[in-house]
Each structure stands twice: as C-alpha cells, then as structure tokens.
Amino acid sequence: MSLKEYKAKRDFAQTSEPKEGNREPGRRKSQGLVYLIQEHHASRHHYDLRLEAKEDDEMVLKSWAIPKEPPLEEGIKRLAVQTEDHPLSYKDFKGTIPKGTYGAGTVKIWDRGTYLLIERDAAKWLVRIKGRKLKGMYALIKLRSKNPQDKNWLLFKHKENPG
Ligand code: MN
Questions:
Q1: Residues of the chain scoring pLDDT < 50
Q2: Which of 24, 61, 67, 120 is most buried (CB neighbours < 10 A)?
Q3: What is the residue-wise DSSP string for 121-157?
Q4: Mean pLDDT score across all residues of the chain
Q5: How far is the CA of 145 from the centre of ligand 1 (A)?
Q6: What are the domain boundaries of the chain?
Q7: Residue 161 Cα, ligand 1 centroid: separation in angstroms?
C-alpha cells in the first residue's frame, strides 16, 4: 500500500499530522513492534488500531478503523475496516485535525505498547499485544467478499494457544 494514499489524502499545510518519519535511528528491534490505538473524535467517533509492519521495504503502521470500543475480553467481535498505511511517526500523534480537512476532529492515544507477530497472511493476523488495555492474543480476520475493494476485518481477543 505504501504511504502514497496517506499523503494524497492530506494537506500538510493545514494539518499537523506527520508527513514523513519512518526512520527512527536509535530504535532497537528488541524494543518490540509498535502497537497503538488512537481514539478519534471525527464525524463518526471511532478507534484506529495501528500495528507496525514492513511494507515495500519501509516500516509503516498498518491501520484499521474500529467503530466501537476495541474488545478487552474474549467473546466480543468488532468490525475493523482497513484504512491507509500511516507513517511510523504517527504513533505519537495526538491533537486536533482542523475542520474541513480529512479526518477532522481530535485524536488521542487510547492504548499503546508493543506486539509480537505470531502469524500473518493476506486474510489473517495473529498477534500478541502488550498494551495497557489490550493484553494477550488477538486475531484480525478478513471477511470474504466478492468485491475486492472491501476491506472489512474482524478483531477479537483470541484464546492464548493458537490452533
Ligand atoms: Mn481515524
């Protein structure tokens, strides 16, 4: 996906969201991959799940918009609509996106931490999240659709032992 779509959607003269910033020279792998959820009071209130991953040779934040509170316990499934990849530096973004621009509204960090990738293919991610609110194994499963444009996934807390 790369960051083309992210950049195309935004006017960086107006928004204080980061334009670049995928290189973090001082960061070590052992610190874990970035996990965070931003709460976004946009025209529709939602939560943005972001997971650091490599895309076209750079690290980005793979992103999903979740209309309801992310599940803290097993047994709750949430729709998670995949959105454009965000630059890694977006992990620190909080503030207000100006009225009349893309994503207008306030953004705050709802949860953050690191995650371990257990399994990933085109239609499934299994991750172990170490956040303050979300802890443990989580699954993201892509919903099948006849329309390749559809980007609907389900997010839920998974049993500790996969398989
Ligand atoms: Mn959002």
A1: none
A2: 61
A3: ETTEEEEEEEESS-EEEEEEEEPP-S-TT--EEEEEE
A4: 92
A5: 23
A6: 3-15+32-157
A7: 31
What's 7's DSSP letter?
H
Which H or E run contains 63? strand 58-66
12-33 confidence digits (pLDDT tens): 999 999 987 666 656 666 668 9
DSSP code of residue 98: P
What tokens does 163 get? 């398989």
Task: Count CA within 13 A, CB hemisphere, residue 95.
Answer: 11
> Which residues, at least 6 apart from 123, have a Cβ–Cβ distance to it below 8 Å?
141, 142, 144
pLDDT of residue 112: 97
- Confidence (pLDDT) at 149: 83
Q: What is the pLDDT of residue 2?
A: 79
Q: How far is the CA of 40 from the centre of ligand 1 (A)?
A: 5
- How many CA atoms within 13 Å lie on the side-chain side of 59? 18
Residue with tokens 């009225």: 99
Residue found by looking up tokens 């994503």 in the block: 103
Q: What tokens does 55 get?
A: 């895309």
